[in-house]
Amino acid sequence: MENKNLSDKESLELITEMINTAKGNIQNSYIYFLIWGWLVILACLLNYGLLKFTDMEHPELAWSILIIGFFLSGWYGYKLGKSSQVKTYSDRIYGQIWFAFIISYFILLFFMKNINYNINPLILIMAGGSTYLSGITIKFRPLIYGGIVLWISAIISFMLPGDLQLLTSAGGILLGYLVPGYILKYKNGKNV
Amino acid sequence: MFKTLDPLLHSQLRLSIMSLLVSVEQADFVFIKEKTEATAGNLSVQLDKLSNAGYIEIIKGYRGKKPHTSCRITKNGIEAFENYVNVLKSYINIKK
């Protein structure tokens, strides 16, 4: 790029072009959807399996595998922060949304005994919130729809008995988390 | 009154840098270099000019063992950029 002087029109075009360049920078944020999506589905199915096929007193303890998610997300967050060349305002909001929801999950898991381990619909409500807000922040429609799917799953879940709630959760997370997560991954791959 | 365009911003590379920085919180030297397609030498000179004017802040540090430079727009920079755009708009309105 030269240091030449510009006409008014060239100046405006340049400003618009550069602002759009900075905006189009989608980070590798899909990774969180894949980590949490797979872990929550695994927890649901494990819980369902333990409930149906074993005499375990608290099959809900299957949810403790989500702890792996805290470490994995933390590690990826640290790695991405170190390698990213640019920090946008939406990246910061996006990171904070995830931080807020991870703290909420943690509190819920820690005290699940106090609410008789009925955490399925609550997990879906929170997952819906984080997904919807993420979609709004990075202006990505599949995530916005994903959030809505998760909220609908939560409503269905409240109307079903415990064992069926687990399968609804697994389905909700698959459609609301993993599908948009993989679309984002595919789009990100094309951007690079 | 006919306002003049800030000469510091009225150059292709410096205006590009400012437009990039106004839309992000912080950007690395490498990122700005890639997006503006400028040479490292030229970019350094222009960044210093903007920094001396107080329009941007240059943060030098280390990432691991490698030296690492990133830039951030200052309040003065945002003001100057907004003034520049407003003057530009007034020119275009007059021409209409």
In terms of topology, how is this protein built?
The complex is a heterodimer of chains A (192) and B (96).
Chain A: H1 8-23, H2 30-53, H3 66-83, E1 86-87, H4 89-110, H5 120-137, H6 141-158, H7 162-191
Chain B: H1 12-23, E1 26-28, H2 29-36, H3 40-52, E2 56-63, E3 66-73, H4 75-95
Describe this structure in words.
The complex is a heterodimer of chains A (192) and B (96). Chain A is mainly α. Chain A has one domain. In chain A, 76% of the residues lie in helices and 1% in strands. Chain A is built from 7 helices and 1 strand, in the order H-H-H-E-H-H-H-H. The mean pLDDT of chain A is 85. Chain B starts with 11 loop residues before the first helix and ends with a helix. The mean pLDDT of chain B is 89. At the A-B interface, helix 1, strand 1 and helix 4 of A face helix 1, strand 1, helix 2 and helix 4 of B. Strand 1 of chain A pairs antiparallel with strand 1 of chain B.
